Structures are given as structure tokens and as C-alpha cells.
Amino acid sequence: MSSAAPRTAGPDHLWSVDEHLEDILATVRPLEPIELQLLDAQGCVLVEDVTVPVSLPPFDNSSMDGYAVRVADVAGASEEYPAVLEVIGDVAAGQAALLHVGPGQTARIMTGAPLPPGAETVVPVEWTDGGLGEGPVTAMRARALAPQGAEGHVHVYRPAEARAHVRAKGSDVKAGDRALEAGTVLGPPQIALLAAIGRATVRVRPRPRVVIMSTGSELVQPGEALGSGEIYDSNSFALTAAARDAGAISYRVGAVADDAETLRSTIEDQLVRADLMVTTGGVSVGAYDVVKEALSYVGDEDEAGSGIDFRKLAMQPGKPQGFGSIGPDHTPLLALPGNPVSSYVSFELFVRPAIRTLMGLDDVHRPRTRAKLTADKALTSPKGRRQFLRGMYADGAVTLVGGAGSHLVAALAHADALIVVPEDVESVEPGTEVEVVLLG
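RESULT FIELD:
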């Protein structure tokens, strides 16, 4: 997980966004690989190439329900002069013993069934009378209802080229091919491929377990009644969902009151199930910002490499931040500010890349692009701070959503991008090209 404590600086040092992120990514290490069953590996990252042990499909098979025939036997067939062939039996999917199709013969064949020896192509059932002698049919009758359909004669009304409606052996992947590369995130299609080539387990880096904890005596759980001076805890829900979106297994801990001993005890209890811990709130300079107090002695602070560094960043929102490792396993911890927008922006900039690093991904950042600013008036930004404003991006343009306030949750809910205003820019005129972080 983490290998060393973060860098430290004087209390008045103002860290840049890039310095803080660089420190996090230099400290957090990918999780150790493990072997998992396929469904347990969903969302995980492969740590080794997967080679195909057997061709897919493993044999020539039919892509249609119809009749396996020799090309010469149906050459020139038409509705006026149909080819009449002897039906020698059925070939069903999964059938081991195969019939041999000789001159003037055919076998009914089902989709996915192996092409029998002697047959060169497949005639769809819709090109035949289905053995009923009453003109073209649209489907075969179920064998249970009409077992006699597997014998007798069938009229074929159209010719077929060689290997028509035949899926060739190895036409998907061949034995020895590389099915998936190391670094691939396993989603449903990748898991399907692994199962199709016979893999029951796969070696991956596990999804990180992320514990999300909000702090504040004023926080009430949704569904409960609000008292005077209380607000609902939205941060823990937002960050837990964001951690899942990033690829983690996330656990939400109910809001912890502003009591250092209670917070310390809760954090220590949660370490057993955490590859990464995230707190929100209590990192500013108020008398009741207890996260700094609590984290100053969480776990084994005497262990080399442990400790949390609390910083001021040259950014808005999200100036107060904390980062380090705690406990005997040096579990990484990121302490985020408590204002909802500050918390979420901080997650996107710092926690999400940490999660993706733990997963072993090469590209850990959200995609970025350039877009023209659509606004009624110029945007202002504090000198010396990198500002992140909520926006909506479409067709090369980005529009500001809400204001700069760090409490505007409703505006955040409608944003799909962050507008980045650099530290040396104090005003951005409408129509100016700006950098945009794409969130969706």
C-alpha cells in the first residue's frame, strides 16, 4: 500500500495541487495480486496476459437451424425444381457422436452444433419444406412434438455456397492467441471471454477496500428528523458512491461526532477492512475541527513511515487537506474538507487517482479537454489559487453551473465537468478556451 510518509513543510507553506497529488501517488502502491474466481474478479485489473488454450469456437459449427448438406447435392435447387435429400438424423448442440453425410443425404442441424463429416455447408430451414412436403417453412417443429422430422426426405429450394452459415473453428480466437492483456479491467465482456476459453480463475489486483467516514456533531442521517442547527450527512454518501464509481469496494461509516477519542477509536476499528481511508470534515482551523487532533495519535504513530501531514493547498475549493498513513500496516488516509463541493472536488483530484493507483491502473486521471467558456460575464478567480468550478460540457463548450460557493450541492448534481482556472489567472472572459476535467 504505502511505502513512506508524505513530505512535510512548515505550517505556512502553501502546497500546489500538483505537489500534493504527486506526493500521494508517490506514496500509494498497487495492491498485491491475488487469484480470484471469475465473478469475484469483476472490476479488477489483470496482472498478466491471458493466452487462449483452445480455439474458439473449438470446432466448425452451424450458425443457423437447418440442414447440413454437400454443395453438389443442392446445386441449382429452386422452388420449381427442389433438391430432394434423405434425412439421416439430427445433429444437436453438445452432441458427441456425429453422423456422416454422404451423397444425396442430409442431417438436420441446430445452431451451435458441429458440422458433421461429409457436409460442406448449411441450408437454413427457411429454404426447405422442413420434411413436411408442403412448401417452404419458417421453423423446425420441436423434436419432442415431431420426432419423425429427423428421418424421411426434405425438399431444398435454394442452393448454398461452400461453408455458408458455418462458423469456422478458431474464427473468434485461435489457440495460442493473446486473449487479454495485463492491465485490462475485467468487465462483463472480458469475463465472458475468460469463461469461453475455459478459465475458472484469473490473477488480478483486487479492488481496493475504501472506508469513507464523515465527521461533525451537526450531521444527521437521511431519513431522520432534523433538529435545530443540524444538517443531513451528504458527504459520506457522495464519496462512497464516488469510490465505487472509481472501482473500489467502499464502506460508509455513519457520521462521527466532534470528539477526538470517539473518532480515533472509530478509525482504529475500521483499519481492519481498509486499504484506504477517507475522512471528510474537521481539517480546518476551528476549535471543533477534531480530525487533526484525533489523527495525531491514531494507531502506531511510532511506526516508521506513519503519520498524517495537514496542509494548505493553493486551490479553491479544498484548501485544507490531510494525507499520510496510519496503523501498523501504514494504511493510506486522505483527510478532506467538510464542505460538500470541497469534499467532492478533492475526491476527484486526489482520492480517485489514489484508488486507481491501488488497482494497478496506468491511467489514473479523469480525461481532460479544452473547451470554450459560455457565460454571461467574466469569471473571477482568486490570485495564486487554482480554482475548480462546476460546469456542463457539450460540443466543445462548457457552461458554468452555480457559483463558486463550496456548499452548493444542487449545482454539483447538475455538473458533469470541472472548469480549471490556473493560479495566475484572475479573470476569464466568455469565449475563452479553458481546461476542463470531464467527470462523466
